[in-house]
Design brief:
Helix content of chain C: 25-40%
Chains: A alpha+beta (180), B alpha/beta (327), C alpha/beta (306)
Radius of gyration of chain C: 19 Å
Strand order of the largest sheet of chain C: 1-2-3-4-5-6-7-11
Number of strands of chain C: 12
Oligomer: heterotrimer
Largest sheet of chain B: 8 strands, parallel, barrel
Number of domains of chain C: 1
Strand order of the largest sheet of chain B: 1-2-3-4-5-6-7-14
Number of domains of chain B: 2
CATH topology of the largest domain in chain B: TIM Barrel
Chain lengths: 180, 327, 306
């Protein structure tokens, strides 16, 4: 069932611990490359951001010791991981599973908000635009990551493997058969 | 006749999800102020609308285009173009609220079927028949202020098809007649297609509690672990006289799932789901649920158990005005 | 510019109702719209006084119109609406249901609760017999200007909400009844104790709205002291003053003086504040960012409340 009928899984301590010491620069770089690949395939996602196409969003997985700064940068996005709190036009906080579930269309953003699993701060309209743009894009992060190559792909693939093995997170879009 | 399930789609992905999940009909709008869910990142440009209609038609579903705000003085051409483009895109009908726009559509696009939006607040058979005679309106979306017996009485006195909301957000005010939002924020459903707009919402974390301000007004505060409502004015927490609380409406959403058999007996043609601002995941789940319900009803089987509570605002649901005690 | 008195939005005892309209016979206003706008259950309490009031006002040289209800749902309300034209005075429609019942080619007025947002709607209403249109209060001055021009070219008058708590919403649910834990059908006329509406405050005590049975009003009193010249130049032909239980004849006189140039911009506001230092005013729908804004001088009590 794609609704979070059960409590949303929390990231295991192992992942959090890894991220507490891992160097963030290479991971940021590979996330940037990865996001640019997504942007290339889904240019309409950035059009949907409208006036927020150059605003920095803070995505804060509350069960990890890092936050992700996403700068859509007019369609050539940049991603920065940081252990500081980060500043941006809006901050979306929640368990990593909730954030990923949103990206994959497994969860409904409003439902996560009602249940307080998702917290929005800053420019609410910007956060809404991002949510809507991502919801329309029908992304599949694991599938996209598998197509990555080159030296920058490695840290990201390692991270995804770790996450998939250790958690019940949505890294793949639920199959159509499951959704309907 | 199986009752028609009319589903919201805020994005092309949601339209496809709704159609695949069994929607008979999808309603959506252009990405501008001509529709009443003019939210950031939502809605369809012209090419997306054309593709969406084609997709729906390929799967045997219909598309209704909501052009249900009230055109701005001096800028009516934007709304006229929306009606013309809806026809060009192959829409099965347009959903209109404004008298001037209805008149324009009836005169300039007579072949394009017209539905009367809930924003017109047509709440009795006399005015519904008036819209039908004057603008050849084929269907009316009934305002959410009527009880089931009142809906039955309306259907007994009109040939116009009726469509009623069965799930999602619940307006407690007569729609199209409410300026609460523009009083607090300057933006209104009638003029701008938004109510309590996100651009004017401010969430403040106050020692674990969540304070919500709209246009600077504190409209509610929920303690840690309490479900959060939408930042909608009429569902805010206020005080008057000696009382403090949800004076207008509780933070609940509508679920009339259990009333489907009664609504069918009352002569209702179509069941409408609110939520063009919701995700494709929401749309797919709600549609599947309601499609199963009307199919069961048609086959004479008992209604399946509902399971939609978590999707609801404040995670609480009501049957709204359909039960007279709501008033 | 002329002055029109809108229909009383509140529930007053019949004696107060009658003396209010008795006073208006001598007030400096041109036109009076009366009858029940908000709740059909209030009407039996003063219905038999309406013909008398109309007679007195007409004899005093006032134009008179009779309002329809703002939201017509019940059978009884449909009948009431159908019978409106029987009194022989002009009908002001505030729900399109009233138009459905008027005989073709009957002239009528259009009240502020009919959605006239654009020229197309205005022209259509005029083609059906509208001869005076009071615009919805939420319209900005830019729209007012366009619509006043369109109306002028069609030979009809345009009126704008001039003063009084703004009608913001109408519902099927009675909030006064809900507040007292009663149903609408058994409301026991909970609204009768609030002759100008019941103040609704936010969670931190800021005055925000006012409750009036099935109607929701603004907390603030809309006031056009600072827009009179703007409205005159836009071609608006009348201001609508909304009845309040205290000091209404004086309010009419102040607006008359302001329109006639005996009071300057700001003087009217001063006079209102002298009479009621705590009064909260707004004019944001016309010229502000939001309806609640006020372009005149700040009022100390509301700032303190924030």
């Amino acid at each position: 069932m794609p609704v979070p009928e059960n409590p949303i899984p929390r990231c295991p301590a192992a992942l959090a611990a890894t991220l507490r010491i891992a160097p963030l620069a290479p991971l940021s770089l590979s996330l940037t490359v990865f996001t640019r690949q997504l942007a290339k395939k889904n240019p309409e996602m950035f059009q949907r951001l409208g006036p927020y196409g150059r605003s920095v969003f803070v995505l804060d997985p509350t069960d990890l010791p890092v936050v992700l700064l996403l700068d859509p940068n007019g369609g050539a996005p940049k991603v920065t991981l940081t252990r500081r709190s980060g500043t941006g036009v809006a901050r979306v906080s929640g368990p990593l599973a909730a954030l990923l579930g949103l990206v994959h269309g497994a969860f409904d953003g409003d439902a996560l908000f009602f249940s307080r699993d998702l917290v929005i701060e800053g420019d609410t309209a910007a956060a809404l635009a991002l949510r809507n743009a991502i919801d329309d894009a029908e992304l599949d992060l694991a599938h996209e990551a598998a197509t990555l190559s080159g030296p920058l792909a490695r840290p990201l693939k390692q991270l995804i493997t770790l996450v998939e093995r250790r958690t019940g997170l949505y890294l793949t879009r639920p199959e159509d058969a499951v959704l309907w | 006749m199986v009752m028609e399930i009319v589903c919201p789609a805020g994005t092309p992905a949601a339209l496809r999800a709704a159609v695949k999940a069994g929607a008979h009909t999808v309603y959506c709008g252009f990405n501008d102020e001509t529709n009443a869910r003019n939210f950031p990142g939502l809605n369809f440009d012209r090419a997306e609308m054309r593709a969406g209609v084609a997709f729906a038609h390929d799967h045997g579903a219909k598309v209704l285009v909501a052009i249900n705000t009230f055109p701005r003085a001096g800028s009516e051409a934007i709304w006229h173009r929306a009606v013309a483009d809806a026809e060009t895109c192959g829409a099965d009908a347009v959903i209109l609220a404004d008298i001037g726009l209805l008149d324009y559509a009836a005169c300039s696009h007579p072949g394009l079927r017209r539905h009367l939006s809930v924003q017109a607040a047509a709440a009795n058979a006399d005015v519904i028949n008036f819209y039908a005679e004057t603008f050849d309106v084929k269907r009316v979306v009934l305002p959410r202020v009527l009880s089931v017996p009142e809906i039955a009485a309306i259907n007994a006195e009109t040939e116009v098809e009726t469509e009623v909301f069965v799930f999602g957000g619940l307006c407690v005010m007569a729609e199209g007649r409410c300026s609460l939002s523009s009083y607090a924020t300057g933006l209104s459903p009638n003029m701008n297609g938004v109510c309590s707009p996100a651009s004017h919402v401010e969430y403040q974390n106050d020692q674990g509690a969540l304070n919500t301000r709209l246009g600077g007004y504190l409209i509610h505060r929920v303690e840690r672990n309490q479900p959060a409502p939408y930042p909608t004015l009429c569902k805010g927490c206020f005080s008057a006289g000696e009382k403090t609380g949800h004076l207008f409406e509780d933070p609940v959403s509508l679920n009339a799932e259990r009333l489907i058999p009664q609504l069918q007996k009352a002569g209702v043609t179509a069941l409408k789901i609110e939520g063009r601002q919701r995700s494709k995941s929401y749309v797919a789940q709600v549609v599947r649920n309601f499609r199963a319900a009307v199919d069961a009803l048609e086959a004479g089987r008992p209604l399946p158990e509902g399971m939609l509570a978590r999707l609801s605002e404040g995670q609480a649901m009501t049957t709204g005005a359909y039960k007279k005690t709501w008033r | 510019m002329e002055l029109t008195v809108g229909p009383n939005q509140f529930f007053w005892p019949a004696e107060n109702w009658m003396s209010f309209y008795g006073d208006l016979a001598h007030a400096s206003v041109d036109r009076i719209v009366l009858g029940e706008l908000v709740c059909s259950k209030r009407l039996p309490f003063y219905q038999d006084r309406i013909p008398d009031a109309i007679t007195r006002l007409v004899e005093a040289g006032k134009q008179v119109a009779l309002t329809s209800l703002a939201l017509v749902t019940l059978k009884r309300e449909r009948k009431l609406t159908a019978d409106l034209a029987d009194l022989g005075v002009t009908v002001e429609i505030n729900d399109l249901t009233a138009l459905a019942h008027l005989p073709q080619n009957t002239a009528f007025d259009v009240g502020p609760l009919i959605n006239v947002y654009n020229e197309g709607t205005l022209a259509w209403l005029v083609s059906r017999g509208a001869r005076r249109i009071c615009l919805p209060p939420e319209l900005p001055i830019a729209s007012v200007r366009v619509l006043a021009q369109a109306a002028a070219s069609l030979g009809v008058a345009v009126e704008v909400w001039g003063h009084g708590r703004l009608p913001l919403a109408i519902s099927g649910r009675c909030y006064h009844a809900r507040l007292h834990g009663r149903s609408k059908d058994n409301c026991q006329f909970a609204c009768e104790n609030d002759p100008d509406g019941l103040d609704v405050l936010t969670g931190d005590g800021q005055p925000f709205m006012a409750m009036n049975g099935v109607q929701t009003l603004s907390d603030s009193y809309a006031c056009t002291d600072h827009q009179i010249e703007l409205l005159q130049s836009a071609g608006v032909s009348a201001l609508r003053l909304s009845p309040q239980s205290q000091g209404f004849p004086r309010l009419c006189a102040l607006y008359r003086q302001r329109l006639d140039g005996q009071l300057d911009r700001g003087d009217l506001e001063h006079a209102l504040r002298a009479a009621d230092p705590g009064i909260r005013l707004s004019d944001g729908f016309l010229t502000g960012e939001s309806g609640a804004e006020w372009s005149g001088s700040a009022c100390a009590p509301i700032e303190a409340a924030r």
